[in-house]
């Protein structure tokens, strides 16, 4: 299976995340899975004229592309011309190259939240009219339109995340290479379910603080970040606290809120990222699948039942009280 | 009679790059560097609460993500009038250093060296060996470097949660308090990386590399025993004379970085044959050849604006042209070490000025200088002491944050009005190095470095042009942002 990777209006962070794969050399991993890089702007040998010639051949069909990976938002501006991003060495806007190659490629994969939904580049006034390949925020559409299907009948596969975990990318590509990725393996937003059927909350090391709503009040506190500091881990689809980052990390383990970066529209949460919007003291964004009344009742109950250890540790940057040691009577 | 040739896409640089060459009698008479991607972060940031910048700015760039965070955190701290506690300062140093060291490694092995595997060099005696070692994606070096780099970046998992795009670097310090056992694990990872560098990259102890004070000593090191990829590079540099390739302005600038108790590990300054007065207030951005509308006169970034326009006479890039007191400067590891007064860096530019070889050597030299500093910072961390203080900028305030990314000087200027970001201007390292011409017609640093090189409008682009471009370790996504 060959793979062409193009970078559109993004930061290159998905590639950098991918290069940090923790399973030996990424290049060997790809080879082992039967994936051949036709071209990737950051790592391939071919440059300038050679690279241009190859991309032209991919666009006109002389070179068959099995998988087209797009990293970065698709910039439609100004006024639909795509002029904010012309692919180096010519006048043609990147969105035109993407349209042409996507129509011929066997599969199209959006790498990261920018090419999935628009992402950070679409934040604020969205100066470049950025969108994703098949979504514009939560709305189906994007550059390729809601009805786009690849030659095997799949929609754009959205390996969302800002950036995505290296394994999300490699495992999605490996599934494609082995012919094991079918429509039922994608969720409602086209994300591979192997990582999107989890919540960031699952495996969060702050779960005990969450249980008792023992909440952090400032950065570097050990408590739960949901009540005050904007954490969306109970609503964000990803396995970040089960499949760790850079060895033993995750946003929560790093001490800061989950900003729901795998979700469409995460770039404009409607409130400051690191604070939790509330109505009458109750966070607006409740955990997924949790009825509001039960959440309020349970939160009130668990707050009153909070052990002193948990309450005190929540407001400290290191352990003040260790769990008590119980001896078994003989 | 000159002909024009548009060259792109350059690969193995971060982001999009295109260069138009004006060729006369087989040489580059003039080069015009175009950054063809505009995203508009400075527009996106307007109207946000100041703290949101910490989410947005790292996402300007996947490779200098932490540098962007650090500049923003410093600007917000400046605006709030606070400074982090010692643990917070040390954690910020460690996080930025980890990114910068990984970038130096990535640049050398993945971006720069593969060019020598190219068929252009098939007649050189070293070609077969180099191709086996450095060929892109299949060479032994890239495949050896990736796992070592990933292992080293595990420091980021502990220090910053993840990389790229962390929120751990805050104006008041770090969100990630470290306990003793975790500091021990960081020591272990650093030790492993040190061993890797000493065996694979240098074939020498880091301290011995850091102690090289002149070209002559560098030559003695090269002919010595021990192997290592730096020796290999030096042999190539001598063989095809990379010491006389890619001279720029020879005016070197550094904002300085890695805050210690009372100074920066590498100080700020300007060097042009000798140390010169350096004044950040003398920075101005010129947009005469960039696709922006403005009042006309170059502006200091604190008062700057970013208003893209579709068409503009004379414009050929989305990159603005920053100037220091009207002058073009070069920034990067070489500039940083020249300004800091490292004797080897000063000696390397003494004879033939800035060059491809000097820029590459300066980067690897920094690996040998910064790793021991990281070990020292780890030892200074004090678990149990505070890591972060709260920051609340006033509703009407402004601030500036200046740091050094791997590839040079990065500055953020923020103005807050009624509690919201009124203006946010960024000048990235490659904005300096790859700037277009200014109103006086002065070409940017790369444009100067390319002028005079052999080129033709029909044949394959000479490898030398690739070397010069990549010797700056450009980051094009930061350049325009």
Automatic annotation (TrEMBL), chain A:
Residues 11-176 form the NADH:ubiquinone oxidoreductase-like 20kDa subunit domain. GO terms for molecular function: 3 iron, 4 sulfur cluster binding; 4 iron, 4 sulfur cluster binding; electron transfer activity; ferredoxin hydrogenase activity; hydrogenase (acceptor) activity; metal ion binding. It comes from the Bacteria. Residues 309-320 have a biased composition (Basic and acidic residues). Its cofactor is [4Fe-4S] cluster; [3Fe-4S] cluster. Residues 306-330 are annotated as: Disordered. The keyword Cell inner membrane does not apply. It is found in: Cell envelope. [3Fe-4S] cluster binds at residues 240, 258, 261. [4Fe-4S] cluster 2 binds at residues 201, 204, 224, 231. Residues 198-273 form the Cytochrome-c3 hydrogenase C-terminal domain. One of its GO terms (cellular component) is membrane. Keywords: 3Fe-4S, 4Fe-4S, Iron, Iron-sulfur, Metal-binding, Oxidoreductase, Signal. Its EC number is 1.12.99.6. It catalyses: H2 + A = AH2. InterPro entries: Cytochrome-c3_hydrogenase_C, NADH_UbQ_OxRdtase-like_20kDa, NiFe-Hase_small_C_sf, NiFe_Hase_small_N_sf, NiFe_hydrogenase_ssu. One of its GO terms (biological process) is anaerobic respiration. It holds the Pfam family NiFe_hyd_SSU_C. Belongs to the [NiFe]/[NiFeSe] hydrogenase small subunit family. Heterodimer of a large and a small subunit. This is hydrogenase (acceptor). It comes from Sulfuritalea hydrogenivorans sk43H.
TrEMBL record, chain B:
Pfam families: NiFeSe_Hases. Mg(2+) binds at residues 42, 426, 481. GO terms for cellular component: cell envelope. Keywords: Iron, Magnesium, Metal-binding, Nickel, Oxidoreductase. The keyword tRNA processing does not apply. Gene3D superfamilies: Cytochrome-c3 Hydrogenase, chain B. Ni(2+) binds at residues 61, 64, 475. Its cofactor is Fe cation; Ni(2+). InterPro entries: Ni-dep_hyd_lsu, Ni-dep_hyd_lsu_Ni_BS, NiFe-Hase_large, NiFe/NiFeSe_hydrgnase_LSU. Its main location: other. Fe cation binds at residues 64, 478. It is found in: Cell envelope. The keyword Secreted does not apply. GO terms for molecular function: ferredoxin hydrogenase activity; nickel cation binding. Belongs to the [NiFe]/[NiFeSe] hydrogenase large subunit family. This is Cytochrome-c3 hydrogenase.
